[in-house]
Amino acid sequence: MSRPSQFAVFGHPIAHSLSPRIHQAFAQQFGIALTYRTIDAAPSAFADAVRHFFNEEDGRGANVTLPHKLSAFALADEHTQAATRAGTANVLTRLPDGRLAAHNTDGAALVRDLTDRHGLDLRGHDALLLGAGGAARAVAWSLFEAGVQTLTIVNRSPEAADQLADAIGEPARVHTRYWDDLGNIGSFDLIVNATSVGTLGQALSLPFSLVGSRAVCYDLGYGTSAFAFLAWARAAGALHAYDGLGMLVEQAADAFELWHGKRPDTEPVYQSLRAL
Ligand code: NDP
């Protein structure tokens, strides 16, 4: 019998990743046999670990998460537009000639979670994006392309927000403000927390005035890392407050389709993780 195809997720730490469970659940939908495991690599060991996985272990595809997304982009031979725009990659795929292709599915995943799962029509929304790191860069482009009316990007380090807005290059719709001004920039219909504050075990201090009367608030994190932001959103009167579990499942579905040429049904997998 032939050996199952090899897949993995690289991160540091990575032991508690849900990705192996998600990819196995998708594979079961199609009767595909695969091995999908976590590979913990410190930043200094990441490039060698990737090379070993693809060259020595016959790896076909890998997801990449914190803190390796920049490095994954840098070591790939080819880059999709989504990866190039974000400057980061969360998917590495071995091409038939052995070279590596980088892709970023984070932005498309967030938009699909908001629109398909949560039924939001983003057109006409005034959106606030908190953060300008790797995930925020992917998300900003996708929100813009999904038709938000305005996108205000606010980052602790203003240079990164400015760079992101400049890269999109639509000053009438996409602009930046300073973090210290959050108390006087009005209210928004959609607020996306793309900072890593929750993941770092901290909480943001945000004014309630940001939350419009029918606002949707979304934290890219999930589990305990999203608690503080979602509690803030509910206390401020948000209509809906969502965590990033749906985005996690959607970004995995994009990677799965890229590798296997089949589109998995994300809803049962999402529901089973939600019930954990
Ligand atoms: P990065 O490290 O690239 O970016 C971190 C961002 O958080 C930067 O904008 C940084 O600002 C900001 N930040 C960090 N600490 C603070 C603070 N104390 N106050 C204000 N801002 C702060 O991380 P990623 O973009 O890769 O990930 C961001 C989050 O999104 C993580 O929690 C990650 O788990 C989550 N994520 C979830 C996904 C999903 O599928 N649900 C997919 C991808 C990411 P500065 O530039 O000033 O340092």
Question: Looking at the structure, what is the overall shape?
Answer: globular
In terms of structural class, how would the helical and strand content be classed?
alpha/beta
**Assembly state of the chains shown:** single chain
Q: Could you report the average pLDDT, rounded to the nearest whole number?
A: 97
N- and C-termini, Cα separation: 34 Å
User: Are there runs of 5+ residues with pLDDT below 50, and where?
Assistant: none
Q: SSE order, as H and E?
A: EHEHEHEHEEHEHEHEEEHEHH
Radius of gyration using CA atoms only: 19 Å
What ligands can be seen in this structure? Answer: NADPH dihydro-nicotinamide-adenine-dinucleotide phosphate
Strand content: 15-25%
Instruction: Count the DSSP helices.
Output: 10
Strand order of the largest sheet: 2-1-3-5-6-4
Largest sheet: 6 strands, mixed
Number of beta-strand segments = 12
Q: What percent of the residues sit in helical stretches (DSSP H or I)?
A: 25-40%
How does the SSE layout of this entry go?
Elements: E1 5-11, H1 19-30, E2 34-40, H2 46-56, E3 59-64, H3 69-75, E4 78-79, H4 81-86, E5 91-94, E6 100-103, H5 106-117, E7 126-130, H6 134-145, E8 150-155, H7 158-168, E9 174-178, E10 188-193, E11 211-219, H8 224-235, E12 240-242, H9 245-260, H10 266-274
Helix pairs in contact: 1-9, 5-6, 5-9, 9-10
Report what the structure shows.
The chain is an alpha/beta fold and 276 residues long. It contains 10 helices and 12 strands. The strands form 2 sheets. A 6-stranded mixed β-sheet has the order 2-1-3-5-6-4, sandwiched between helices. Strand 5 and strand 6 form a beta hairpin. Helix 1 crosses helix 9 (245-260), helix 5 crosses helix 9 (245-260) and helix 9 (245-260) runs antiparallel to helix 10. The two termini are 34 Å apart. The mean pLDDT is 97. NADPH dihydro-nicotinamide-adenine-dinucleotide phosphate (NDP) is lined by residues 66, 69, 106, 131-136, 155-157, 160, 194-199, 202, 220-222, 225, 244, 247-248, 251.
